[in-house]
């Protein structure tokens, strides 16, 4: 088994049976795993901010910082590698409200959740499980061999990237 950490503002795709993709320290940022059970292709994305329009220069350097640019790029890359629209299964974690208690509209976590689900809906990706919002850190895992994905609540001693 090869554990591959997907760090903040990164995305990884794999078809290797031995790979386990994971991302940790999901606070207000978003972690999304996708898997196509026929193509045996999976991926994990860890986006930090909701919209690239706020920092367009930063988005040009690394579109995976932003959910609205990074998530569509991951989906399009998965399709180009053999995933099929309508077959992808997703797990979604993050969007916690760790610092901004009561910030309402300006809460980064809430904005990340909204944009994530809008994009997944537009791409017709089925969300199998989610752990979003609240005030806990999370980790997200995906095994490529069988597409099993799971979300852990962060506790001291959890595996960091």
Q: Could you estimate the helical fraction of the residues in percent?
A: 10-25%
CATH class: Alpha Beta
Mean pLDDT: 92
Q: Provide the gyration radius in Å.
A: 15 Å
* Mass-distribution shape: globular
- What count of structural domains? 1
Helices and strands, in order, run as EEEEEHHEHEEE
**Could you say what the CATH topology is called?**
60s Ribosomal Protein L30, Chain: A
- Tally of extended strands? 9
Structural class: alpha+beta
Number of helices: 3
Q: What's the architecture in CATH terms?
A: 2-Layer Sandwich
Strand order of the largest sheet: 2-5-4-6-7
> What's the end-to-end separation, in Å?
16 Å
- Model regions low in confidence, pLDDT < 50 over at least 5 residues: none
The portion of residues forming beta strands comes to 25-35%
Q: How would a textbook summarize the main sheet?
A: 5 strands, mixed
Can you describe this structure?
The protein has 161 residues and is an alpha+beta fold. The protein has a single domain, classed as 60s Ribosomal Protein L30, Chain: A (2-Layer Sandwich). Helix content is 22%, strand content 34%. It has a five-stranded mixed β-sheet with strand order 2-5-4-6-7, covered by helices on one side. A four-stranded mixed β-sheet has the order 1-3-8-9, with no helix packed on it. A hairpin with a 5-residue loop joins strand 8 and strand 9. Helix 2 runs parallel beside helix 3. The two termini are 16 Å apart. The model has no long low-confidence stretch (mean pLDDT 92).
């Amino acid at each position: 088994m090869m554990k591959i950490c997907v760090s903040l503002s990164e995305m990884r795709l794999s078809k290797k049976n031995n790979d386990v993709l994971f991302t940790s320290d999901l606070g207000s940022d978003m972690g999304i795993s996708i898997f196509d059970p026929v193509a045996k292709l999976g991926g994990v994305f860890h986006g930090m901010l909701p919209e690239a329009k706020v920092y367009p220069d930063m988005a040009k350097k690394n579109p995976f910082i932003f959910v609205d640019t990074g998530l569509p790029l991951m989906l399009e890359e998965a399709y180009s590698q053999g995933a099929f629209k309508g077959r992808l299964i997703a797990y979604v974690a993050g969007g916690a409200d760790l610092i901004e208690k009561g910030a309402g509209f300006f809460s980064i976590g809430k904005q990340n959740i909204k944009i994530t689900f809008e994009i997944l809906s537009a791409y017709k990706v089925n969300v199998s499980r989610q752990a979003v919002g609240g005030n806990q850190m999370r980790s997200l895992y995906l095994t490529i061999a069988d597409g099993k994905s799971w979300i852990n609540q962060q506790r001291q001693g959890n595996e960091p990237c």
